[in-house]
Write a structure and sequence with these properties.
This protein has 383 residues and is of the alpha/beta class. The chain folds into two domains: 188 residues, 3-Layer(aba) Sandwich (Rossmann fold); 155 residues, 3-Layer(aba) Sandwich (Rossmann fold), CATH 3.40.50.10490. Helices cover 46% and strands 15% of the residues. The protein is built from 15 helices and ten strands. The strands form two sheets. A five-stranded parallel sheet has the order 2-1-3-4-5, sandwiched between helices. It has a five-stranded parallel sheet with strand order 7-6-8-9-10. Helix 6 links the parallel strand 3 and strand 4. The radius of gyration is 20 Å and the shape is globular.
Length: 383
């Protein structure tokens, strides 16, 4: 790794300690907020957010299906508030979970208020219990992320990890409280999560070294494409986001299958194409897509289990991921190499995260002209 530690490096290296710290606290919070009566009434889950919070929602969708035993849809807050909620006629059977660590993102506030307006149960996952999001929900899950002193703003990695942990523990608790999971199965899932800090530490060591070596030897990158399916699609979106925020490179997170219909025809032959797969339900297609990418000249980067051979065998670079987490929890581990990749790329280009909030941007209102926090709400819920 190049000399000097950046703010993003510091955040990434802090993850094992952070996860070890928050898991017991979040598990206790899930127990106190999801009781058996409430859980029995839930028939459908929606998980909403913007940016990293939406990516965490996508990464958690499968867990609500398989661990809570409930149909689940991950949606952007805008899509839910303006295209789903107005058409819901709910009697309390829908649980709508809004995720925003700051609790101030306008679209997510709007989405929860619209959900309440049509009778759905609402739960805010936020680090600020006095925020607009918290005050808009019937129940608040305190996803507090301990502050970390860094010399400059960093693309968020700690907040994403905290949001994922909170959503997974809520899914486990819902399944337990509904009787879908036995107490033993719920305990086993929580134990699996507790194994994460050791695995993350190993992934950080390997990921940092491999990112540094591969990027230093790779020239003329104009764009990065990240591919995944199921929970790994959320990881792909997150990987693209960290590259955009960190180095400013053009980056796209894409569904594994959709790449074969779209980016397959892009004319930039050598675009690095990062295939993320934990050996889950999408694995056979991931192998085919990786082979197709290689056949048309793409530089294939594999983020795969340490013993995987099909994708790794044809890749220009491989980030082996240790351990054997169930696919539902994979984003907690498979996102780590992508953080290392983004951090090393920003270091190599000597780029300031978020372009230093210059060029018409600012830190005010969550980004300045983008009005992430100050955007007008729908009139029916503005007040």
């Amino acid at each position: 790794m190049a000399a000097g530690i950046t703010s993003m490096d510091a955040q990434v290296e802090s993850l094992p300690e952070l996860v070890g710290e928050i898991l017991p606290r979040y598990a206790a919070s899930a127990r106190t907020r999801i009781g058996t009566v409430m859980a029995a009434a839930v028939r459908q889950v929606y998980v909403l957010g913007c940016g990293d919070s939406h990516m965490a929602a996508v990464g958690s969708e499968l867990a609500f299906w398989t661990l809570a035993g409930l149909p689940c849809r991950a949606a952007t807050a805008l899509h839910f508030a303006r295209y789903i909620a107005p058409h819901l006629q709910d009697d309390g059977g829908a649980l709508v979970i809004g995720v925003s660590v700051s609790g101030q993102v306008a679209r997510t506030v709007e989405a929860l208020r619209m959900a309440r307006r049509v009778g759905a149960r609402t739960l805010a996952v936020t680090g600020d219990a006095s925020s607009r999001l918290a005050l808009s929900a019937q129940c608040v899950f305190p996803a507090v992320v301990p502050a970390m002193a860094t010399p400059a703003p960093s693309p968020g990695v700690r907040s994403y990890m905290a949001s994922l942990a909170a959503l997974y523990l809520l899914a486990v608790r819902l399944g337990e409280a509904r009787g879908f999971l036995t107490p033993q199965s719920a305990a086993s899932a929580r134990d699996e999560l507790r194994s994460l800090p050791r695995l993350q530490a190993e992934a950080i060591r390997t990921g940092t070294d491999r990112a540094s070596a591969w990027l230093a030897a790779t020239e003329e990158i104009h764009e990065f494409v990240f591919l995944g399916a199921g929970p790994a699609y959320g990881v792909a979106l997150f990987g693209a986001a960290k590259m955009l925020e960190g180095s400013g490179d053009s980056a796209c997170g894409q569904d594994l299958e959709e790449w074969a219909h779209l980016q397959y025809f892009a004319k930039d032959v050598a675009t690095p194409t990062v295939v993320i797969d934990c050996g889950g339900a999408g694995y056979s297609r991931a192998c085919e897509v990786a082979q197709a990418a290689r056949a048309i000249g793409r530089r294939v980067v594999a983020v795969v289990p340490a013993d995987e051979r099909c994708i790794a065998g044809i890749a220009d670079a491989t980030f082996p991921v240790p351990g054997a987490l169930r696919e539902e929890f994979a984003p907690l581990l498979y996102s780590v190499p992508l953080m290392c990749l983004a951090s090393e790329r920003a270091r190599l280009l000597r780029e300031t995260p978020y372009r230093g909030f210059g060029g018409g941007r600012s830190k005010a209102e969550g980004g300045g002209a983008s009005r992430v926090q100050s955007s007008a709400l729908l009139p029916e819920v503005d007040g």
